[in-house]
Amino acid sequence: MNVLWIYAHPEARSLNGALRDEGLRTLTGLGHRHRQSDLYAMGWNAVVDHADFDQDPDTRLVVGAESKRAYESGGLSADIRREHEKIDWADTIVFQFPLWWFGMPAILKGWFDRVFVKGFAYGVREPNGRTARYGAGTLAGKRAMIIVTAGGGESAFSPRGINGDLDELLFPIQHGTFWYAGLTVLPPLAVFGADRLSEADYEAAAEALRERLQTLDDTPAIAYRKQNTGDYDDDHVLLPDRAAGQRGLSVHRVPQA
Hints:
This protein is of the alpha/beta class. It has two domains: 223 residues, Flavodoxin domain (Rossmann fold); 33 residues, no CATH class. Strands 1, 2, 3, 4, 5 and 6 form a six-stranded parallel beta sheet that branches. Its EC number is 1.6.5.2. InterPro entries: Flavodoxin_fold, Flavoprotein-like_sf, NAD(P)H_dehydrogenase_qn.
């Protein structure tokens, strides 16, 4: 298996750095091939601008249209093209980051803003003319998984915890980005209490990571509903007989027996 590891933490000597190193060692030991995008080490530019699309800075920038034009013409900046090549190569993409202010670090958000351009990750159509998204699209067939560290305890990220349910906090990334672009989404691996782990806690986290990587190719995915297979009406609203009487983000998952 080809695994691309997107790493977004500024300190290699951190908990995240140790887990990243353990993960890459594990992949090697399992016989998988891996490549890495260490965003801070790369000095990744997180800001979309005219240079991404080889456009005159004095012209009006319409990001969607210009990104599609540049993608189709080969005019995207070299750093974006390199990330596309890595994604094309990968079967599975691991995204590792600390939870900062209930979201991903800005450098990783900027990676998505610049790399998931129109024509590559969205804005494509199925043969019947319908927009290919939420389970369909050019990235369909690849898997994605989040590894996230959080300072709070696990109970604080539970459905009744003060921080909110972690699955719901990650919904914009897992459903609104991964699934939207067609990626199959694996359940996240979370490490809680990240700023106060004991040695025993770290060993437990490392073992959980090793176990997840050993089952990358057969871990059941999150069963999100697809857009174009009959669950939603023409306005993209869930049909009344699906999750009848329910509200909230969980309705966008297929009930499991």
